[in-house]
Write a structure and sequence with these properties.
The chain has about 425 residues and is α+β, with helices and mostly antiparallel strands. The protein has helices spanning about 10-20, 35-40, 50-60, 70-75, 80-85, 95-100, 105-110, 125-135, 160-170, 225-250, 280-290, 295-305, 405-415; strands at about 1-5, 25-30, 45, 65-70, 90, 120-125, 140-145, 150-155, 175-180, 185-195, 200-210, 220-225, 255-265, 270-275, 320-325, 335-340, 350-355, 355, 390, 395-400, 425. The protein is built from 13 helices and 21 strands. The strands form three sheets. Strands 1, 2, 3, 4, 5, 10, 11, 12, 13, 14, 15, 17, 20 and 21 form a 14-stranded mixed β-sheet that branches. The longest helix has 24 residues, at about 225-250.
Length: about 425
C-alpha cells in the first residue's frame, strides 16, 4: 500500500512513525512533512494541500492507495475531488469546512443540534456584544470568529469593551463575536473513527493548553486506563460521541476519518468546544505509542466505509504522556535554531517533530520506483545533518508505559536532555494524577 499524508505537524510524524511498521505499507509520502518524517520513515514532497485538483491528480498518477488529509486539505475539498476518482481519503468532505474555519458557525451548529456548549450568544455588532456582556455574570470569554484569533477572558467589567473591540477588529469579521461563560475546567478530547455508518471509539486524552489559554495549542497531554478514566470515556460516548454522530447523519456530512471533540469537563458534564477531523497533535502523540495493533487496516477501512468489518485496536500500554517543547515567547516564531540532544534517546521515549527542518531528509522522486527502505533522493553532498526549527512549536516528547508515573518520568528526562535556545515546556502534565 502506498500512503500519502498531508501535513507537517506532530500528528503527521506520529502517524508516519506508526504506519512505517505496518506490513501493509510499502511507501509513505508526506506533503510537505517536517524534520522528523523525512529522516527515516517517509519521502517528503512539495505537494500543495490547497490545490485539491493537483493533489487528487497526484494520487491517481502515482498510484496512491490512501491519502490522510490535514485540515487544509479537507477545507480545500481534497476528499470531494478524490472521491470522484475513486481514491480513498481519510478525512471529511468540504461540507464540514465551516465547523473548522469559523467559531460562530460551529457554535450555531452545536445550538441547532442541541449539543452541549458553553452558555452564551453570537453577537454580530460590537455595541450589541458589549450590552449583552454587561448583563452577564463574570468571568466571560469573548472569542473572535477566526479559530486562530483571540479568546479574551474578562474578570472585570472594565475589560469587556476592549475585549469585544479586539475580537471584532483584529481581522475582518463577517459573523461577529461570541460572548460566553468562562469555565476553569479540565480539557479532555474524545476521539473516534467514523466512516459515516460505523464508528470505533478511541481512548480519551486529557490536554493542557499553552499558558492554560483555551485558544492556544496543547502543550501536553496524557491518557490512562483507570476505572475513573473508563467511566469518563463512557460519559463522553453517551453525551458527546453519539449525539455528534447523529448530527452528522442529520446533515448528511461526508465523514470518513478520525473525529475528535474537545470538551471542558465541568459540573454540567462535558461541554463541546471544538471539533477536528484529523488527529490533534498531542492526542496522536499520546495514543499512537500505546497502540499495539496495526493502524493501517483501521485507517483504510475507515476511508473505504468498511469500518464495521475491521478488527478493533489493541492497546498494549495502559498510559501515555506527551509534552510539547515550544518557544519561550509564545507565539513568537523561532526559526533557524539548532535542535540538539536528539541522539541516544532511551526507551520508552519517542520524539515527534513539529516545526523542524532536516536538510538531509528524503525527497520523493516520482520517476524512481524504489522500495520503502531505499532513498529516492536525499540531501546534497556535503550538507550537514542538523535539525533546525521552523516555528514556535518545535517537537513533542512522548512515552507509553504500564504506569503513568513511569511514562511521565521518561518524557521529562528526555526533555531535560534536549537543547534549543529560548525553548520551554509545561512542567505539570499529568502531575495531579500521580
Amino acid at each position: 500500500m502506498k500512503i500519502l499524508l498531508f501535513g507537517d505537524t506532530t500528528a503527521t510524524h506520529a502517524l508516519t512513525w506508526k504506519l512505517f511498521d505496518s506490513p501493509m505499507v510499502d511507501h509513505l509520502l508526506c506533503a510537505p512533512g517536517n524534520g522528523g518524517t523525512g529522516s527515516v520513515f517517509a519521502f517528503d514532497t512539495d505537494l500543495d494541500p490547497h490545490d485539491e485538483s493537483g493533489a487528487a491528480n497526484f494520487m491517481f498518477t502515482e498510484g496512491i492507495d490512501l491519502a490522510i488529509a490535514n485540515q487544509r486539505a479537507i477545507v480545500s475539498g481534497l476528499w470531494d475531488t478524490a472521491h470522484l476518482l475513486n481514491k480513498p481519503v481519510l478525512g471529511a468532505g468540504r461540507a464540514v469546512a465551516p465547523l473548522l474555519t469559523s467559531r460562530i458557525a460551529l457554535k450555531a451548529w452545536l445550538l441547532r443540534h442541541k449539543l452541549p456548549t458553553l452558555r452564551g450568544r453570537i453577537l454580530e455588532r460590537a455595541d450589541d456584544a458589549e450590552k449583552f456582556a454587561a448583563g452577564q455574570q463574570l468571568p466571560l470569554q469573548i472569542s473572535s470568529d477566526d479559530p486562530d484569533g483571540p479568546v479574551v477572558v474578562c474578570h472585570e467589567r472594565s475589560e469587556l469593551q476592549a475585549a469585544v473591540r479586539r475580537c471584532m477588529g483584529l481581522v475582518q469579521q463577517t459573523h461577529g463575536v461570541l460572548v460566553e461563560e468562562a469555565l476553569n475546567a479540565p480539557l479532555v478530547v474524545a476521539s473516534w473513527l467514523s466512516d459515516g455508518i460505523s464508528r470505533m471509539l478511541l481512548p480519551a486524552v486529557r490536554v493542557y493548553p499553552i499558558h492554560d489559554q483555551i485558544a492556544n495549542p496543547a502543550a501536553g497531554a496524557h491518557g490512562a486506563s483507570t476505572q475513573v478514566w473508563q467511566r469518563l470515556e463512557q460519559v463522553l460516548a453517551e453525551q458527546i460521541v453519539g449525539p455528534v454522530e447523529r448530527a452528522f447523519q442529520v446533515d448528511t456530512l461526508p465523514i470518513r476519518g478520525w473525529v475528535s471533540a474537545e470538551c471542558l469537563i465541568g459540573q454540567r458534564g462535558p461541554i463541546l468546544t471544538r471539533l477536528a477531523f484529523t488527529p490533534p497533535d498531542q492526542v496522536a502523540a499520546v495514543l499512537l505509542p500505546r497502540l499495539g495493533s496495526d493502524l493501517a487496516p483501521l485507517l483504510y477501512a475507515t476511508a473505504t466505509q468498511t469500518l464495521g468489518e475491521a478488527a478493533p485496536p489493541v492497546w498494549q500500554s495502559p498510559t501515555g504522556v506527551a509534552v510539547l517543547l515550544y518557544a519561550n515567547v509564545w507565539p513568537a516564531s523561532s526559526s533557524g535554531l539548532v535542535v540538539a540532544g536528539l541522539d541516544n534517546l532511551a526507551a520508552p521515549t519517542l520524539v515527534f517533530h513539529h516545526n523542524t527542518h532536516n536538510p538531509q531528509g528524503l525527497r520523493y522522486n516520482p520517476a524512481a520506483r524504489s522500495s520503502r527502505l531505499l532513498p529516492l533522493f536525499s540531501a546534497k553532498p556535503g550538507e550537514q545533518r542538523r535539525i533546525t526549527t521552523t516555528g514556535p512549536m518545535i517537537l513533542t516528547v512522548a512515552a507509553a508505559a504500564p504506569e503513568l508515573a513511569t511514562a511521565r518520568a521518561a518524557a521529562y528526562r528526555t526533555l531535560e536532555q534536549l537543547q534549543v535556545a529560548g525553548s520551554t515546556y509545561r512542567g505539570d502534565v499529568a502531575r495531579r494524577e500521580l
